Amino acid sequence: MDWQITISLITLALVIFGIIWGNGLWVRRERIEIVYPNMLVQLKTNEVNGIHFECNFRLTYVQGLREQYVSKIFIKFDKSSWERVRQFYKIPINICKGINHDARVRLPIGHQVQFGHDAFFPTRRDISVEKLEEINNIVQALTHKYKIGWEDTYKNTHWKTVNQLRAMRKEEVM
After folding, report:
1. Model pTM?
2. Per the domain annotation, does 137 fall within a domain?
3. How do residues 118-143 score in pLDDT, each as one tens digit?
């Protein structure tokens, strides 16, 4: 008889826990989403040859109970695309932009906050005009797949993979 009471109590506890967890009464995870990520990469061949890089995105704090701040943003290129580009340009695989500690960016729940990074990466060597079109196709491959990351209030780094090419194809279909 004792084991039946023990099993009944455990079952009751699991049911109560399931009801609380299922109704969202126990929210312990924050959820932040990336909205409208966009990366633009252009070859510059004026006075100084190189790549002009821009990445813009918005973060939205969707779910959670605690205050959220962003102290750093990261951009990480797809390794296969980056390896092809790095033979021509001095471009790191990871780009990090720190935000001033006093001016950390607060993410209010339900609101979008704009972030971005703008940089210039010079060439490693002189590139002929004939080779520029081929290199431009290689450089544009950087925008197809990349990761966006951010460091939150609690020093946790979060990463989201962005497939910009897939998103552009979806927009063309619509």
Report:
1. 0.70
2. yes
3. 889 888 887 777 788 888 888 888 88
Query: Smallest Cα–Cα separation from 29: which of 75, 52, 62?
Result: 62
Q: Which string of DSSP letters, residue by residue, matches 43-98?
A: EE-SSS-EEEEEEEEEEEEEE-SS--EE-EEEEEE-HHHHHHHHTTB---SEEEEE
Say if residue 74 is exposed, middle or buried (CB neighbours under 10 Å; 0-12, 13-18, 19+): middle
pLDDT at 171: 58
Structural domain for 56, as ranges: 30-173
| Span 86-98, pLDDT tens digits | 888 888 989 888 7
Question: 120 with 49: CB under 8 angstroms?
Answer: no
Q: Is residue 10 part of a domain?
A: no
Q: How many domains, the chain?
A: 1
Question: Which of left, alpha, beta for 52 (phi over 0: left; psi -120 to 50: alpha)?
Answer: beta
Q: Give the whole-angstrom CA distance, residue 52 versus residue 44.
A: 7
Query: Is residue 11 in a domain?
Result: no
d(CA 99, CA 6): 54
Work out the pLDDT band at 172, boundaries 50, 70, 90: low
